[in-house]
Amino acid sequence: MTENLPTPRPARSVAVLGTGTMGFPMARNLAGAGLEVRAWNRTRAKAEPLAAHGVRVTDTPAEAVDGADVVLTILHDGPATLDAMRQAAPGLRPGTVWAQSATVGLSGLDDLAAFARDGGLVFVDAPVLGTKQPAESGQLVVLAAGPEPARTVLAPVFDGIGSRTLWVGDSGEQGAASRLKLVANSWVLTVTNGTAEALALAEGLGVDPRAFLDAVAGGPLDMGYLRAKSEMLLSGHLEASVATRTAEKDARLIVEAGRRAGVRLDVAAAGAERFRRAIEKGHGEQDMAASYFASFDG
Question: pTM score > 0.90 for this model?
Answer without folding.
Answer: yes
